[in-house]
């Protein structure tokens, strides 16, 4: 009799081995730091910018009609990032949108360390390449060494089961770095594999 396949635990429940080091953390230490030191003539490793955290925000516009949609979005985001998100709430009443102060309208999660690197690797190697007719992401930084990537559809992440939750919504992924300039932040994120759109001169 064939053995019954063991279902893989959702990312939010997986326990990583003790001492586990994400691939991109190794890449940062062994490859990215030396490149940035040479490119920007740093005299110390401590001068090299690093990725501090990644925050993901999802606004659920239909939540004013159905509160369950926010809960579903939270469960879905937890599967994607392997960490429980928090709900975000409206700060004021907007009668035109039937929005009341304190109503849940979205979800948010902040990733650091291992989960940050794991999410980034899946994003650049698996999810972004799944976007139809993808030709890179915009280069515009925020002027403070950080970058926000807008995604139109959460279904680019393979963890999302479109049959279970057919609602499509976007998300904003913000990369917060310690870089002092946009140029340094751009170089750091490009080395991590973010596929910035190339301009033809």
Secondary-structure map:
Elements: H1 23-40, E1 51-59, H2 68-81, E2 86-89, E3 104-111, H3 113-127, E4 146-151, E5 171-177, H4 182-192
Antiparallel strand pairs: 1-3, 1-5, 2-3, 4-5
Helix pairs in contact: 1-4
What series of H and E elements makes up the topology?
Answer: HEHEEHEEH
Q: Helicity range of the residues?
A: 25-40%
Structure annotation, total helices: 4
Query: Helix- and strand-based class?
Result: alpha+beta
Quick one: how many beta strands?
A: 5
Distance between the termini: 64 Å
Shape by Cα distribution:
globular
Strand content: 15-25%
Strand order, largest beta sheet: 2-3-1-5-4
Q: Gyration radius, to the nearest Å?
A: 19 Å
Q: State mean pLDDT (0 to 100 scale).
A: 84
Care to describe what's here?
By secondary structure, the chain is of the alpha+beta class. The chain has helices spanning 23-40, 68-81, 113-127, 182-192, and strands at 51-59, 86-89, 104-111, 146-151, 171-177. Strands 2-3-1-5-4 form a 5-stranded antiparallel β-sheet. Helix 1 crosses helix 4 (182-192). The radius of gyration is 19 Å and the shape is globular. The termini are far apart.
């Amino acid at each position: 009799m064939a053995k019954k396949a063991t279902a893989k635990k959702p990312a939010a429940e997986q326990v990583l081995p003790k001492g586990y080091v994400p691939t991109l953390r190794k890449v940062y230490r062994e490859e990215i730091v030396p490149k940035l030191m040479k490119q920007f003539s740093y005299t110390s490793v401590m001068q090299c910018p690093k990725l501090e955290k990644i925050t993901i925000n999802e606004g659920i516009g239909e939540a004013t009609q159905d509160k369950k949609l926010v809960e579903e979005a939270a469960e879905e985001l937890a599967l994607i990032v392997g960490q429980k998100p928090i709900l975000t709430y409206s700060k004021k009443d907007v009668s035109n949108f039937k929005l009341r102060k304190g109503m849940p309208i979205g979800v948010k999660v902040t990733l650091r360390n291992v989960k940050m690197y794991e999410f980034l690797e899946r994003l650049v190697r698996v999810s972004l390449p799944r976007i139809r007719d993808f030709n890179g992401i915009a280069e515009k930084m925020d002027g403070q060494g950080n970058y926000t990537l807008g995604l139109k559809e959460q279904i680019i992440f393979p963890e999302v089961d479109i049959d279970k939750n057919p609602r499509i919504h976007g998300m904003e992924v913000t990369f917060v770095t310690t870089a002092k300039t946009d140029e340094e932040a751009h170089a750091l994120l490009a080395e991590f594999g973010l596929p910035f759109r190339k301009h033809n001169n």
